Amino acid sequence: MEALFDERSNDYFSIDPQTGSVVTARSLDRETKDTHVLKVTASDHGSPRRRSATTYLTVTVSDTNDHEPVFEQPEYRESIRENLEVGYEVLTIRATDGDAPANANMLYRLLEPGAGDGVFEIDPRSGVVRTRAPVDREEVSEYHLVVEANDQGKDPGPRSATAMVHITVEDENDNYPQFSEKRYLVQVQEDAPVNSQILQVSSTSTPSLEPLT
């Protein structure tokens, strides 16, 4: 018995010359080589003339779910502005693995804890993360989500992996400035010189808490 196209196949199979039993000689890996074509020859040891026949054996290696999903990035970071419309697409998560399609059919979901308090959702098929509620930086300035990718493998079973998603909410100037006092009362002498400072007022805006002039 010998490989017909790829000599590597000779390393994976052997044949008993007496019984014709073909057995594996080493572990198979579909991701390395998924098909082996072998030429098998039988001789009858006849006398005075030996006769032989040839057949061809094609071995197809079926897939075993032996790869875990791998995300395109180990960690995702994105910034969005507050007061976005519901349904806004924040980013897309994607994971792949080396198995056949039947064992690499990804489903995505947000895990608890860290699902964003219901503010975000993920499309289970496309991996698109969207807003499902308004975001307000004054309430929450950062969200930390955990996304799981599950390959739905059948043999021997599904495999999954997770990735972190960090979403920062950027400020939108939606707060009016506020003075430090609601009302100021000042007494000034009538003979005060011109350009005499009588008071310094200050105000702040809630998002930044920085003094305004």
TrEMBL record:
What GO molecular functions are on record for this protein? calcium ion binding
Instruction: Fetch the Pfam families from UniProt.
Output: Cadherin
Protein keywords: Calcium, Membrane, Repeat, Transmembrane, Transmembrane helix
Q: Which InterPro entries match?
A: Cadherin-like_dom, Cadherin-like_sf, Cadherin_CS
Q: What is this protein called?
A: Cadherin domain-containing protein
Q: Which SUPFAM superfamilies match?
A: Cadherin-like
Where found in the cell?
A: Membrane
**Predominant place of localization:** membrane
Classify the source by domain of life. Answer: Eukaryota
Q: Name one GO biological process term.
A: homophilic cell adhesion via plasma membrane adhesion molecules
* Species of origin: Callipepla squamata (Scaled quail)
Annotated Cadherin domain residues: 9-71, 72-179
Q: Which GO terms describe its cellular component?
A: plasma membrane
